[in-house]
Design goal:
302 residues, alpha/beta, DNA polymerase, domain 1, 7 strands, globular
Length: 302
């Protein structure tokens, strides 16, 4: 399991669930199974439902009758729980990062540090990959994703650069992409820039922010009063969505009030300040450096 992925903020995130040994919990990002195993270790006759769309994750499923594994995208959370006959759960945990296993497999195309296919699909069975994206998207569409999902300052130049280079040579590998964007990659901060380029493509290919939005919306109906929502995010776009949803109850950044001016929020923050990994953890696992943990408790409001 540790070679597949080292779970980040393991104790802090599972502690955040405030586990009832007889409760029902959901791990929507099973991956290497680190968080799931810790949850199972704290359950008695409770249940854990785990989601992961990557078939590689199935190799990490423990032999435990209390675990139900679904090879599904967590954006279909509510429908899958209804299918299982589960009306509500005591807590949901999500680790939104790409697993070490996915980063370290060159053929998956997640890392600019490795030569491999330009893929980036969380679900290898999905039809649309990063290769199709850089081949088919218009200049305006490329500018949009690099600006919105990579927060890249020269997104316009970058989009134009890809359009011009794909006319001369097909972009089918990570190496091809790095070569195609070389003309607009800064001399200083090259790695940080390429990380943003790859992040933007990955988010678009997997519709990650759409999936997170669906998860947060469905969590209101799925988590019972007093239950917990635990989210680990790794970049500002995700963390901002989670923070605003907890604070405002939706994504408009406006507090909804009743006729008396009181706030009607479905969640209340358990940790007022975001929880960060300590230096000991980041020394052991450098990929934990960008992790941000937020924990919220379900109120009685809809």
């Amino acid at each position: 399991m540790s070679s597949y992925h080292i779970p980040v903020l393991l104790n802090e995130s599972v502690d955040g669930l405030n586990i009832n040994p007889r409760g029902n919990y959901v791990d929507v990002t099973f991956g290497g199974g680190g968080h799931s195993r810790e949850i199972l270790g704290r359950l008695e006759d409770g249940r854990l439902i785990a989601f992961d769309q990557d078939p590689d994750a199935t190799a990490n499923i423990p032999d435990d009758p209390r675990l139900i594994f679904l090879r599904q995208n967590f954006s279909f959370l509510s429908n899958n729980l209804k299918y299982l006959g589960i009306d509500s759960v005591d807590g949901i945990i999500a680790d939104l990062g790409v697993s070490s296993h996915q980063f370290d497999r060159p053929e998956r195309g997640f890392s600019f540090r490795m030569k491999g296919d330009l893929d980036m699909r969380m679900n290898p069975d999905a039809a649309f990959s990063a290769r199709e994206l850089v081949t088919e998207y218009s200049e305006q569409e490329l500018i949009r994703i690099f600006s919105a999902y990579g927060e890249i300052r020269n997104a316009r130049t970058l989009g134009r650069c890809i359009i011009e280079n794909r006319k001369r040579k097909e972009i089918i590998s990570t190496e091809d992409l790095i070569e195609a964007v070389a003309g607009c990659t800064p001399r200083h901060g090259e790695y940080k820039y390429l990380a943003k380029v790859f992040q933007a493509l990955r988010i678009e290919v997997n519709k990650e922010l759409n999936g997170l939005e669906q998860l947060l919306i469905q969590s209101v109906d799925v988590i019972k009063e007093g239950g917990r929502l635990v989210i680990l995010s790794y970049h500002s776009l995700e963390d901002r969505m989670v923070k605003n949803f907890i604070r405002y109850g939706d994504f408009s950044m406006e507090k909804e009030s009743d006729i008396y001016g009181g706030r009607k929020l479905p969640f209340k923050a358990v940790n007022r300040k975001v929880i960060l990994p300590g230096p000991g953890e980041t020394d052991r696992n450098p990929r934990a450096r960008s992790a941000r943990l937020r924990i919220a408790e379900r109120t009685g409001n809809k």
